[in-house]
Amino acid sequence: MTDSISSILQGGYHHPTIRAWQSERVLRKSSLMYPIFVSDVPDAEEEISTMPGQKRWGVNTLPKLLSPLVKKGLKSVIIFGVPIKTPKDATGSRADDPNGPVIQTVKLIRREYPDLFVACDVCLCEYTDHGHCGWLNQDGTIDNIASVNRLTEVAINYAKAGAHCVAPSDMMDGRIKEIKASLIREGLSNKVTLMSYSAKFANAANSAPAFGNRKCYQLPPGSRGLARRAIIRDLGEGADIIMVKPGLPYLDILRDAKELSPNVPIAVYQVSGEFAMIYRAAEAGVFDLKVAVLESANLILTYYTPQLLDWLEN
Q1: Mean pLDDT in residue range 10-22
Q2: In which pathway does it act (predicted)?
Q3: Which of 18, 84, 211, 278 qualifies as a FRET site for 12, CA 20 to 30 Å off?
């Protein structure tokens, strides 16, 4: 293994879509990544009440969503598994179930939409009975080392299933380094992109765990210094893409991310309707959309991808 884990670069340009993200920051269809929620109910097509216009899909119904979007120019998606019937436990043991929603969706997409870049969110919160993003100590605090080990297993299994990109969103310390090292050991570092939720802030919109909260591992609101340190850390640990989530309240962090990591793609996760808010405000002349977001981000994860595919020419 190389002495410097951050010298492994090929994971950042192994696919045509991610090669586009390495170029200058211009808004185009390839700049959009659509978050998709996939249930363990194969024929599911359920409205998500808290997210207007979004649905939970099953593996059997997903082509109904994807086929028209791919025809419109959709280039990438990120998959979130949503177990409805799957038993949950303290360790999130079903997160990488070969018959679970994430791995089955990856295989479907690679088979039916071979040119579509598929990323997988890597976290345990949907699969643990306590709802936290990692393993817990007996006193209810996060066991960071055990959590990182388990998250690394999940990421590698998603990669082996065919994911082009793994994106750990758990915010555990050191997980980027461990996942990158494992990708190298498994011979996958030149085939799989590692996208880090480096600056992910805790907020009231996050789904709550069964007890406690996620404020001890997600960043406190307004903690610019911590966000800068996390970005620098994850770059050093081998991240191919740096992400800021959410975007609208943290445009200053987006600017910091661009300053601190000018040589890697910057992603911004526009939660709920915030991208549409920015877009319409820019249309009304409140500010320049390009200055506000697009000059800072190569990749935008947004629920408004279907609409933007219609708005954008290429």
Answers
A1: 87
A2: Porphyrin-containing compound metabolism; protoporphyrin-IX biosynthesis; coproporphyrinogen-III from 5-aminolevulinate: step 1/4
A3: 278
